[in-house]
Design goal:
Elements (H helix, E strand, L loop, with lengths): L3 H4 L19 H9 L9 H7 L44 H10 L4 H14 L1 H15 L8 H6 L2 H10 L15 H20 L10 H13 L4 H40 L8 H36 L5 H17 L1 H4 L2 H10 L5 H15 L9 H13 L6 H17 L6 H4 L11 H22 L8 H16 L5 H8 L4 H4 L2 H9 L6 H20 L15 H28 L4 H7 L10 H4 L4 H17 L3 H14 L7 H27 L5 H18 L10 H13 L5 H25 L3 H21 L5 H17 L20 H15 L10 H26 L9 H4 L6 H18 L1 H21 L8 H12 L9 H15 L15 H5 L8 H14 L8 H11 L137 H9 L32 H4 L1
GO molecular function: chromatin binding
Subcellular location: Nucleus; Chromosome; Chromosome, Centromere
GO cellular component, one term: chromatin
C-alpha cells in the first residue's frame, strides 16, 4: 500500500493507482486462478461471466476466457424495436413484484419475504436470481423485465442497454427520488431487505460463488450507467451489500482466529495427549474459514474498486453521501482492513464537497472514528493533513455541518495528545455568540471543556477549595477578553446545557460579589451581567432573541424544572438582593442590572412566607434611595419598571409598595415646588435649576409607572414651560422633564376618564389642557434644542393618537375629549420630517463610538417616523399627509423602507384609490420642486426611479389593482396638461408624463386604450408630437398587441409578469375613479375605523403583559381577488439615490394638504407593526441561491460567517443589518 504522504494528496491520483492499492489483495486466490493449477471448488461459470462487468476498471480474470468489454449501457434512451418479454417463472414462488410491493409499502416483515425467496432459490438458482434481478430493475423505476433467455445469452452490458431503452421517459422521478415520506419508507425498506437477505445467507449462499458475485456484478454495471435512476439505486444497494459483507468478514476473521488458537493449543500438546480427530476437524475448519474469508475479500474488493472508487465523486449528491456514510461504517466495523490512509483519503477529499449533505456525512463518519481511543494512533497523519479544513468548516454555510464540525473538533481536543493549539481554538470561541442555537451550544460545549481543562491543569481553587468559584473567574476572564459585553445572554445560553449546574450556583456568584476582595471593578460587572442573564434563562426557560427555533411549548418536565428554578432564585435572592443593591447603589450600570432581578421572582412569596416579609420593606427602601441618588435615564427607567411590577394589584402587598412610592413622590413634589416660584420669576440660580430639573426628571420616571394626577403637577409644568419659552431661557433637562410630566399626566387623565366617566365640565377642562399642551409642543418643534424638540414631537404623536376620534369611538360619552390637530400643527409635523428625519448622517465618524451614535440616531429617527405614520394610518392626519413620507421611499429605502412600505400597505386597506392618488401626488410634489429650482434641462432620473419603485408596491394581481392604477394615470395626465397661469410657459408639467410612464407596465390592455384616448382628448393637437407625450403613448401601446392572442387572453395581465387573469373583476362604488379631481388638491378621507389604541411612540413604560392578538385587517370587497404575493423587487434596488429635497418652509407646509370632506370608512385594522422584519422576503432570498450538484465546482465555505444577534428586546428587528 502507498504511504500516507502520497495517498492523501489529491483525488486525481486515484485512477492512476495500480491494483496494489486495493484494500483486499487475495493473492492466493489470484495465483491459483491464473495459473490454473487447481480447479475451483465449485463451478463458477455464471459467476465468472457476470463478474467481468463492462464498467469495472480492473481486470483480475480467474479464467483466460474472460475478456474485457467496453461499456455500452446508458448511451441511448430510444425505445427498443423489440419489446423485452416477461420472465416465465418455472415455479409458483415469490415474484419480483411481490418483493417490490412489500419493500415499497413497508408493512410486511422482511424476514418472511426473504424466506419465501430463499425457498424459490433452493428450487432453482437461476429462477431465484432472475427474481432478484427484476426486483432491482423495478426498484430503479424501469418498466423493462429481464427473462431467462436474456440472462443466459446476453452479457451484463447488453442487458443494461436493453433496460435503458425500456426506461420510462415520462417522468424524471424514480422510487429513490420520490418526494415526501414515501422516499424515506422505500429507502428504509430496501436497506432492510438487503440486510435480512445477506444475514439469512451468511452461512450458506454467500459462499456459493453464484448468487452474490452475480448480483454485485450487475450492480457494478448499473452503477456505471448514464441513467441516474440505475446509478443511484444500484450504488445504494451495492454499498449496503458491501456493509453486510464487511460485517460477515469480521465475524469470519474472529472465528478463524479462535479456531487457529484452538488448533495451536491442541497441536502444542504432547503427542500422546493429542486428539488426531480433533486436529483434523480444526484443520478442516481453518481451511474452510480461510476460503470463506478469501471469497468475501474477493467480493468486497470487487465492489470497492468497481463501485465506490467511481461513485464517491458522482455528480449526484445523494450517491456521494451514501458512499461516505457507508465508508464510515466500514472504517469502524473493520479497522484492520479499512482504517488506513488509502481509505481515509476519501473522507478527507470529500470534506471539500460542494453539497452540504455530503460534507455532513463525512464529518459524522469521522466522529465515529475519533470516539474510539484505539483508532487515534492510526488517525495521526489524517489529523495533521486535514485539521485545517475541519477548522474552516466551523464557519460552514450549512449550520448543521458547522455544528458537527465543532463536535468533531471537541473529540479531537479530548482524544489526541496534542489537541488544538490556542490560536486554533480561537476559531471556535466566538461561535458561542452565533445566532444559530445549535452551533452556539456546540461551541459552548467546546469552551466549557477548555475551561475545565485549564482549571484541572492549573489546579486553581480558592482558599475554601471551591472549584466553582475558580470556574467563574476563568469564565469572567474569557468574557472580558472577547469584548462582546452586550451579548452576555447569548454566552449564558450557549453554556446552559453543559454548565447549567455551575450557572445555577447563585450562592457562589453572590458570595463573590459581596466579598470585599478577589474581584476588580471590571470583573464584578462581568460576573453581575452573567448572573442576571442566568437568572433570566432559568426563570423564563426560553432562548434569547434571535435564537428561537419557532414556537415550542415547554414539556411538563421543563415546566417543572422552570418552577423549581424560579423558587430557588426567589428564596435565595430575596434576602441577598438588598445587600447587593446597597453595595452597588452608586454604580448606575450595576444597579440597573440588579433592579431587573425581582422581575423574575415569584413575588407572591413575599406575602406567603412570613420570614421574607421584612425583606420587602428593605427592597422598597433601597429602591427609593436609588431614585433619590440617580438621575441617569437607564436607572430611573429600571426603577419605574420595578415600581410598576410591585404596585400591580395582583399582588397582596401592592398597597405597601404604593404607599412607599407615594411618599417618595410627595418628597419629590415638595422639592420641585420649593424651586417653582424662583423658576417662574427667573431668579433661581444654577443649583436651583439643577435641583428642580432632577426632581422633575425623577417624577417623570415614576409617572410612567403610577398615576401622578393626585399631585396636580400639570398646571405647574405648563406654566413653567410657557415661562421658559417666552423668556427664551431654555434649560434642556428641565424642559424635557416638564414635557414628560405634563404628557404623562394627560395620559393618566384619559385613562381615568375612560374608567370613571367624569362630568362634562371636567372633560372640557381636560380637553383645554390638551389643547394648551399641544400648542406648547408645537412651539418646541421650532426650537434649536434637539432633546426638547425630539421629546415634543414624540409626545405630540402619542397624545394626538390618544385623544383622537378613533380612541373614543367605543365611548360616545368621551367625544368631548377629541382633539384634532390644527393646520399649522400639521404643517409643523410635516416640516419636522423634512428637517430632522429625512436627512443624511454622513458627518458622523465611523469609528466604534461614531457608529454607535449613528445607530442610536437612526433608531430615534425610525421611532419618530413610525409615530407620524401612525397618525396617518389611524386617521389623525389625512391620507394626503403621507406624501411627506412616500416621496422619500427610494432615497431612504435602506433606513426607513420597511416603515414606509408598511404605511403604504395600511393606507391601501383604508382606501385603495385614495392611496394611489397620494402616491401620484408625492411624485407631483417632487416634480414641482424640481421645476422651481430653475434647471433648464431638469434630470428626472431620480424621480423616475422613485416612480418605478412605487409602481412595484401595487398588487401583482392586476385586476385587483386596476382602479388604483387608473386613478394614478388620470391624476397624472390632468397634472401634466394643466393650464399654466398667464405669463408662464404653456404646459410646464408635460414632462411629468415621462415619470407617469413608469406605471404603464401594470395596466390592463383595455385601460391602455382608454387612457390613450384620454390623453388625446386632454392635450392640444400640437402636443401629440412632443417627446414626453410620445414616450407616454408608446408606453401605453408597448404591450397592447400581445393582448390580442385569443379569447382567453384578451383581458389578461401583462404577460411579462406571468400574472394569471381574473375571470371577472368585482366592482363597487367605493373604488370608482372620480374624474372631477383637478389640481394638486387631492380628495382625502380621514380614518374612521374601529382601532385599538396603538403603541405609544414616546418613552412611556411598556407593559410586559401581552395583549391578545387582534384579527388581521381585511380589505374592502372591491379589493378581493387572488392571493398572489406582491411583487418583491426592493432588494434588487441599486439605482442612484435621489437628490436631497429641500425642506418645505414652515409657513407654507400645509398648502399641499388642504382638507376635503371626509369619507366614512369602516375598516377593521390592527395595530401598525412598523418595526417588524419582512421574514418572507428573507426566506425567498435564501431559497434563491441553491447549490449546483457538481463536486468539481466546489467553492470554499470560508467566506460564510455567523453574525452576532441583536441585543435589543424586540421581535424580528429590522435593524439587524446595521449590527452586522
Amino acid at each position: 500500500m502507498e504511504n500516507g504522504s502520497s495517498v492523501l494528496d489529491s483525488p486525481e491520483d486515484l485512477d492512476c493507482s495500480s491494483d496494489s492499492g486495493s484494500i483486499f489483495v487475495p493473492q492466493k486466490r489470484r495465483k491459483q486462478t491464473v495459473a490454473g493449477s487447481q480447479p475451483p471448488k465449485r463451478p463458477r461459470r455464471n459467476a465468472v461471466r457476470v463478474t467481468s462487468s463492462p464498467s469495472s476498471p480492473f481486470t483480475t480474470p480467474p479464467d483466460s476466457s474472460q475478456q474485457r468489454q467496453s461499456p455500452s449501457q446508458g448511451t441511448s434512451r430510444k425505445p427498443s424495436s423489440r419489446r423485452v418479454t416477461s420472465a416465465s417463472e418455472e415455479s409458483q414462488g415469490i415474484s419480483a413484484k411481490d418483493i417490490y410491493d412489500a419493500v415499497f409499502s413497508g408493512k410486511t416483515a422482511m424476514v418472511t419475504v426473504v424466506e419465501e425467496w430463499l425457498c424459490s432459490y433452493k428450487r432453482s438458482k437461476e429462477a431465484g436470481l432472475l427474481v432478484l434481478i427484476n426486483f432491482i430493475v423495478q426498484s430503479c423505476g424501469c418498466k423493462g423485465v429481464v427473462n431467462r433467455d436474456m440472462l443466459e445469452s446476453m452479457e451484463n452490458a447488453e442487458i443494461i442497454g436493453a433496460l435503458t431503452k425500456e426506461f420510462n421517459e415520462d417522468s424524471v422521478n424514480y422510487p429513490l427520488s420520490t418526494p415526501g415520506p414515501q422516499l424515506k419508507r422505500f429507502k428504509a425498506g430496501l436497506c432492510e431487505f438487503l440486510r435480512v437477505l445477506v444475514r439469512s445467507c451468511r452461512n450458506s449462499y454467500v459462499y456459493d460463488e453464484f448468487l452474490f458475485p452475480s448480483l454485485l456484478a450487475l450492480l457494478t454495471g448499473l452503477s456505471d450507467s448514464q441513467v441516474r435512476a440505475f446509478r443511484h439505486t444500484s450504488t445504494l444497494m451495492a454499498m449496503k451489500l458491501m456493509t453486510e459483507l464487511v460485517d460477515i468478514a469480521v465475524a469470519v476473521s474472529v472465528q478463524l482466529q479462535t479456531t487457529q488458537r484452538q488448533f495451536d493449543v491442541e497441536n502444542g500438546k504432547k503427542p500422546h495427549e493429542r486428539a488426531s480427530d480433533r486436529l483434523e476437524e480444526l484443520s478442516a475448519s481453518i481451511r474452510e474459514l480461510q476460503e470463506n474469508r478469501e471469497e468475501l475479500s474477493f467480493m468486497m474488493n470487487t465492489t470497492f474498486r468497481g463501485v465506490f472508487v467511481h461513485r464517491y465523486r458522482d455528480r449526484l449528491p445523494d450517491i456521494r453521501a451514501t458512499c461516505m456514510e457507508e465508508l464510515g461504517v466500514w472504517l469502524t466495523t473493520d479497522p484492520e482492513n479499512f482504517l488506513n490512509d488509502g481509505c481515509l483519503k476519501y473522507l478527507g477529499w470529500t470534506l471539500h464537497d460542494k453539497q452540504s449533505p455530503v460534507r455532513l456525512r463525512c464529518v459524522r463518519a469521522l466522529q465515529g472514528l475519533y470516539q474510539q481511543k484505539e483508532f487515534i494512533g492510526r488517525l495521526e497523519l489524517f489529523t495533521s493533513r486535514f485539521k485545517e479544513r475541519i477548522l474552516s468548516m466551523v464557519l460552514d454555510k450549512d449550520p448543521d455541518v458547522a455544528v458537527e464540525a465543532v463536535n468533531l473538533l471537541l473529540m479531537i481536543q479530548q482524544s489526541t495528545e496534542e489537541g488544538l493549539k490556542e490560536e486554533e481554538c480561537g476559531h471556535i470561541y466566538p461561535l458561542v455568540y452565533a445566532s444559530h442555537r445549535g452551533l452556539a451550544s456546540a461551541a459552548g460545549a467546546f469552551l466549557c471543556n477548555k475551561l475545565r481543562h485549564v482549571l484541572t491543569a492549573d489546579n486553581q481553587e480558592d482558599e475554601n477549595g471551591n472549584s466553582i468559584a475558580s470556574f467563574f473567574q476563568i469564565l469572567i476572564s474569557f468574557y472580558i477578553q472577547t469584548e462582546f459585553h452586550e451579548h452576555g445572554t447569548y454566552l449564558v445560553d450557549s453554556l446552559w446545557t453543559v454548565a447549567g449546574s455551575e450557572l445555577r450556583d447563585w450562592a457562589t456568584m453572590t458570595a463573590l460579589l459581596l466579598q470585599d476582595y478577589g474581584l476588580v471593578y471590571e470583573e464584578e460587572g462581568a460576573l453581575l451581567e452573567i448572573m442576571m442573564c442566568a437568572i433570566r434563562q432559568a426563570a423564563e426557560a426560553t432562548p434569547p432573541v434571535g435564537r428561537s427555533e419557532g414556537k415550542k411549548n415547554l414539556s411538563m418536565k421543563q415546566k417543572k424544572i422552570q418552577e423549581q428554578d424560579r423558587t430557588r432564585i426567589t428564596t435565595h435572592f430575596i434576602p441577598v438582593l438588598p445587600q447587593l443593591l446597597s453595595k452597588y447603589s452608586a454604580d448606575a450600570e450595576k444597579v440597573s442590572l440588579l433592579l431587573t432581578a425581582p422581575l423574575y421572582f415569584d413575588l407572591d412569596m413575599y406575602s406567603s412566607t412570613q420570614w421574607l416579609e421584612k425583606h420587602l420593606d428593605l427592597l422598597l427602601s433601597q429602591i427609593c434611595d436609588i431614585v433619590k441618588k440617580h438621575t441617569d435615564g437607564g436607572v430611573l427607567q429600571a426603577c419605574a419598571q420595578l415600581v410598576s411590577t410591585l404596585c400591580s394589584e395582583r399582588h397582596t402587598f401592592s398597597s405597601r409598595a404604593h404607599l412607599a412610592f407615594s411618599q417618595l413622590l410627595d418628597a419629590l413634589t415638595d422639592r420641585f415646588s420649593a424651586y417653582l416660584s424662583d423658576l417662574l420669576q427667573d431668579t433661581a440660580d444654577e443649583d436651583g435649576v439643577y435641583n428642580a430639573a432632577t426632581a422633575l426628571k425623577r417624577i417623570a420616571a415614576l409617572s410612567s409607572a403610577m398615576d401622578p394626577t393626585g399631585w396636580e403637577l400639570l398646571d405647574s409644568c405648563l406654566e413653567l414651560l410657557k415661562n421658559r419659552i417666552e423668556s427664551v431661557n431654555l434649560d434642556t433637562e428641565l424642559m424635557a422633564a416638564a414635557l414628560k410630566c405634563a404628557a404623562f399626566h394627560l395620559m393618566w387623565a384619559k385613562l381615568k376618564a375612560v374608567n370613571l366617566k367624569p362630568a362634562e365640565a371636567e372633560l372640557k377642562c381636560l380637553r383645554k389642557q390638551v389643547r394648551v399642551f399641544c400648542r406648547i409642543c408645537q412651539t418646541c418643534l421650532s426650537l434649536d434644542q434637539t432633546e426638547i424638540r425630539d421629546q415634543a414631537f414624540e409626545l405630540l404623536c402619542d397624545l394626538l393618537l390618544l385623544y383622537s376620534e378613533v380612541s373614543v369611538r367605543s365611548e360616545p360619552a368621551l367625544q368631548t375629549l377629541v382633539h384634532l390637530p390644527s393646520d399649522s400643527l400639521r404643517a409643523e409635523l410635516a416640516s419636522f420630517l423634512l428637517d430632522y428625519i429625512f436627512t443624511d448622517t454622513e458627518s458622523i465618524e465611523l469609528d466604534d463610538e461614531g457608529l454607535e451614535k449613528k445607530v442610536a440616531l437612526l433608531q430615534k429617527k425610525r421611532n419618530q417616523l413610525a409615530g407620524y405614520c401612525k397618525l396617518v394610518v389611524y386617521g389623525v392626519l389625512d391620507l394626503s399627509a403621507a406624501t411627506n413620507v412616500f416621496k422619500h421611499y427610494s432615497k431612504y429605502f435602506k433606513d426607513f423602507g420597511d416603515i414606509i412600505k408598511e404605511t403604504m400597505s395600511k393606507s391601501k386597506l383604508i382606501n385603495p384609490v385614495q392611496s394611489a392618488k397620494v402616491v401620484c401626488l408625492s411624485l407631483q410634489q417632487l416634480f414641482a420642486e424640481m421645476l422651481t429650482e430653475g434647471h433648464e434641462r431638469p434630470d428626472f432620473t431620480e424621480i423616475r426611479e422613485l416612480a418605478r419603485r412605487l409602481a412595484m408596491t401595487f398588487d401583482v394581481n392586476l385586476q385587483r389593482a386596476r382602479k388604483q392604477l387608473v386613478a394614478v394615470h388620470l391624476d397624472g395626465i390632468r397634472f401634466a396638461f394643466r393650464v399654466a397661469p398667464e405669463g408662464e410657459e404653456e404646459h410646464p408639467n408635460v414632462a411629468f408624463l415621462e415619470i407617469l410612464s413608469e406605471f404603464s407596465f401594470k395596466l390592463l390592455p383595455q385601460d391602455r386604450a382608454q387612457l390613450a384616448n384620454f390623453v388625446e382628448a386632454e392635450c392640444p393637437s400640437a402636443a401629440l408630437c412632443w417627446p414626453a407625450v410620445r414616450l407616454y403613448l408608446r408606453s401605453l401601446a408597448a404591450r397592447s398587441s400581445k393582448s390580442k392572442k385569443g379569447p382567453g387572453e384578451g383581458g389578461g395581465a401583462d404577460s411579462s409578469l406571468g400574472t394569471p387573469v381574473a375571470k371577472r373583476m368585482r366592482t363597487s362604488a367605493q373604488g370608482s375613479v372620480s374624474s372631477s379631481a383637478t389640481g394638486l388638491l387631492l380628495e382625502s378621507s380621514s380614518v374612521q375605523s374601529h382601532l385599538h389604541t396603538p403603541v405609544l411612540t414616546s418613552t412611556v413604560l411598556r407593559q410586559t403583559a401581552q395583549e391578545p392578538a387582534a384579527k388581521r385587517p381585511t380589505a374592502a370587497p372591491s379589493d378581493s381577488g387572488s392571493d398572489l404575493a406582491e411583487l418583491e423587487s426592493e432588494d434588487e434596488f441599486s439605482g442612484p439615490q435621489m437628490r436631497k429635497v429641500k425642506p418645505t418652509k414652515r409657513g407654507t407646509a400645509s398648502s399641499m394638504q388642504a382638507a376635503t370632506p371626509q369619507e366614512e370608512l369602516h375598516s377593521h385594522l390592527t395595530l401598525l407593526s412598523l418595526i417588524e422584519d419582512d421574514l418572507s422576503e428573507k426566506a425567498e432570498g435564501d431559497s434563491s441561491g441553491r447549490e449546483e450538484p457538481e463536486i468539481e465546482d466546489y467553492e470554499s465555505d470560508k467566506e460564510s460567517q455567523y453574525t452576532l444577534p441583536s441585543t435589543r428586546h424586540t421581535s424580528a428587528s429590522i435593524l439587524d443589518e446595521l449590527f452586522d
